[in-house]
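Support reply, case 0932

Customer input (verbatim):
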Amino acid sequence: MDGPSVPESRPFDAIVIGGGLAGLETARRLRAAGTSVVVLEARDRVGGRVHSQRLETGYTIDLGAQFIGDVQRRISALVDEVGLTRVPPHTVGDNLFLLPDTEPVLRQGEGLPLSLIGRLDALVAMWGLDRRLQSFRADVEGLDAVPAARFVRDLTHTRVPADFLAAYAEGELCASLEQTSAYELLDQVASAGGMDGEGNSARWYLAEGTGPLADHLAGRLGESVVLNSPVTKIEPHGEWLSVDCATGVYRGRHLIVSVPPQLYGRIGLLAALPDERRRAIAGYQLGHVIKTILVFPSPWWRELGASGRIQSVGGIFNQAVDTSPANGSVGILVLFATAAGAVRLSAMTEESDRIARAVGWLEGVSGRAVPQPIAARSINWNADPYSLGGYASRRGMGGWRLAPDLFAPVGRIHFAGTETASEWRSFMEGALQSAERAADEVLDGLAQRGGLREIGPVC
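Our regenerated output:
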């Protein structure tokens, strides 16, 4: 449908672009403060990179973001508010490890399969990393010019600990350490409270999936959430900003952009940004991730004494984890292909081919034929036109030096989304933290100028 002209469109205190956790929580906070707000979401659903699917078996799987930790206070509070059930990943049994040029598969009860020298090397590397976290912000010029791959290698003295540390870092970043700076890596770790925080970030998954979190937030907003509304144009008009999308043209005093930075060009935002910010966005590195979920009649790996946890260094699948229901009535393995592994796997454009590849990989790891899955999904988040990657995108080399204030407000334009978070960046917790900041910025601006009152939902 054709939208109304800018002068005739309904005015709002704030327009939010993007109906993921960040956009929905920003809107909820603004609504609670008495402001008028509309959320424009391109998809036919809310949640963004949070997306759950109910299976015919009666169980729910998460196609996107899944794990939380008690140290993440915002997402934990939201889980309690919605009344969802926490389930710990299964950890009983041996963890399996695959190393390049190493046969057979290594089994380890706890920790990494390292020699005494390797363990000492890993401990020294972790100590060195924690030490750098205390002072790295004073050296943005130097560290933002150093590839994270070199930084990780310099922390270690032997090959196997270096391989494990690099694999862990690439798994968290979902990006190549050669194309990511040491500063970006350190900022990511610091945003999670250090390595201890990262280690405590996956203590639980939710029996009902994470989708109900987004549904709950959207339910509080009602008709203020407008689906199937991809934005194509943003224009300033004096005291107002106008936003063109598939469902019309909207006017707002403030605009909150909560889509990933790689989509800024598509929504017509780049022209409103300073040159150095446009250049930083142009150099953004997409996070590469393919998440494959295999549902089996039972958790068969437990019969082999395995926990279901697998870590592969340099393999097409980087990691696997057991997320079966607490009663073990079915077996669910989640396989992650990230960074280079995801790029390789994305050559298989058909979901069924990726699922078959995952089953074959498990057979190679376990050394036996595995049962046929009763349900399976394999989601390439880079192929999603409204995400173009996950878990999050990253500044490219030199991006921090170029635009250290990349997500500071530009006039009445504000930024939310996990990429913009200063705490728990790339996590669901980061999305909620960014929403707090963005909502506070808008409310401060409205208080200074005199904002609109609640004027009802969008037509």
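We compared this against your earlier run and they match. Two observations from our side: Residues 115-199 form a domain with the Guanine Nucleotide Dissociation Inhibitor; domain 1 fold (CATH 1.10.405.10). The longest helix spans residues 428-449. Please reopen the case if you see a mismatch on your end.
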